[in-house]
Amino acid sequence: MKNIISKVILGSFVVGAVGMTSAQKIDAKAKKILDDITANYKSKKNSYFKFSFGSGLNGQVNKTEPGIYYTAGEKYKLKIMDTEQIFDGNKIYNINADDMEVTIAKPNGSATMFSPINYLSTYRNEYNVTYNGKKTVNGVNADFIKLTPVKANGIQYVYIFVDSAKKQMVKLEQHGSNKDVAVIAIKEYKENQDLDPNMFVFDKNKFKNYVITEL
């Protein structure tokens, strides 16, 4: 399971960018819902998500683990089990406590970094978007939106479930072309907290016994 999580954090949610195309189709209702959520999140000083992360093969989730995610502007911190990822606005730090390894890299201009809410921006250029009605998810009567890549990018489709009344995401499902599936289900949401000033800072002194690789 740890290998699966590390793989997903490092790769499965990194979506290759594609250019605009006249073939792209975005449903007006779905667009308004996604834009309303985006505006809501952007209006906050910071946001916190507690979520369950599920992954599996052949479209079936076979195990879930808890995760937490903090974000303030472009910066974020993500943690699932013994794997942590920090983006300080300049570099991405992937920290694997189990293997005692840290990988440091600049974000790739042709890719979107992992985030429970990354599709709220990438959908505008990279996906056909359809509104699929209502569906009860975790007790919420959620709006169901489907994203399908305009061009092949390793993803078959993405499902986004939204609590439109609160303008918050409830659940995200990413289904890969290879039948892999990754799911984020939001369990708790907080905003505008007083965060530690060093929340998004990577301190090398805390990882003296780790193998640190800078790409």
From TrEMBL:
Superkingdom of this protein's organism: Bacteria
Keywords: Signal
Keyword Signal: yes
InterPro entries, sorted: LolA/LolB/LppX (IPR029046), OM_lipoprot_carrier_LolA-like (IPR004564)
The name this protein goes by in its record: Outer membrane lipoprotein carrier protein LolA
